[in-house]
Amino acid sequence: MDEGKPEQSNKLPFKFRKLNVPTSAVEKSWSAIESQLSNQKLKKLPFRIYTLAAIISFIAIGSGLWLYQSKPVEIHTAYGEVRRVVLPDASVVVLNSNSSIRIPKDWSMDKKREVWLTGEGFFEITKKPGTGSATFVVHTNHVDVQVLGTKFNVNAKEEQAVVALKEGKVRLMSKEHTPVETKELVMVPGDVVEIKGKEFTINKSKDIEKISGWRNNRFYFHNTPIAEIARMIKDKYGYDVELKDRNLSDKKLNGQLNAADIHEFAEALEVALEINIEIKEKVLIIKSK
């Protein structure tokens, strides 16, 4: 490996207690909170250190208080970055790298809750407090996911979207408005649905955790060709892959890799596939041993 690894910071777990915070205090801190939201970096789970503004935000949410922002909040992740976002209703979204989520300005506990996702995210949605509809909708370019008190993964990075349901129940509504047989599809736990154009393809998975393993820097492969791995590297880390030998295209990977960054991923790949990898700028150069 040519490039050195960045130093890893120590992990310090925090616990928060529910406190009664005056509305005035929340309002005063909102400007700082909004500016700091985009800096809540979480490259390794569980929690890392949060900024003071983010801590205030957590306390405000625990007290059931949220200042309605004057404009939508957009949170983006860089290549190789994973970020945990707490929504106004205490629902949690873990954003994968090269992804974004938009939270609208008209968020209300008495109305439908909506967010807009680009890329991939794992959602843990709380049941809506108070009265009115408990509907929560995740919008993507391919499909709208309507949920209630559930955990699921949405990947809308490719030409198709993939939704994997871990707990609860979700309803999928195609952007084309004409999915197979009906205009919508209700998923049950263990369902993995691929949405491409007008078609819904339903598969089953006994372990949804493997699909969302990226949250904990775990990646699972089953006879995965090196070309597909190269696409994943490009999408997650922003690195291109160059194969120096033709026979390398026949390589396939089985098993699990644990990697917190591109350097660890390349090292694990070297061992698993018995290859040599050289990193130059933003390119992984792969050679046979």
Write the H/E string, N to C: HHEEEEEEEEEEEEHEHEEHEE
Portion in strands: 35-45%
**Separate helix tally:** 5
What is the helix content?
10-25%
Low-confidence stretches: 2-21, 23-69, 178-182
Strand count: 17
SS class: alpha+beta
Rg over CA atoms:
21 Å
Averaged pLDDT, please? 76
What general outline do the C-alpha atoms trace?
A: elongated
| Spatial separation of the terminal alpha carbons | 14 Å
Describe the sheet with the most strands.
Answer: 12 strands, mixed
Describe the structure.
- The protein is of the alpha+beta class.
- The protein has five helices and 17 strands.
- It has helices spanning 23-37, 52-62, 208-211, 226-237, 262-273; strands at residues 73-76, 83-86, 92-95, 100-103, 113-118, 120-124, 136-139, 143-155, 161-174, 185-187, 191-196, 199-204, 218-225, 240-243, 252-258, 275-280, 283-288.
- Strands 1, 2, 3, 4, 5, 6, 7, 8, 9, 10, 11 and 12 form a twelve-stranded mixed β-sheet that branches. A three-stranded mixed β-sheet has the order 14-17-16, covered by helices on one side.
- A hairpin with a 3-residue loop joins strand 7 and strand 8 (143-155).
- Helix 1 packs across helix 2.
- The chain is elongated and about 60 Å long.
- The two termini are 14 Å apart.
- Residues 2-21, 23-69 and 178-182 have low confidence and may be disordered.
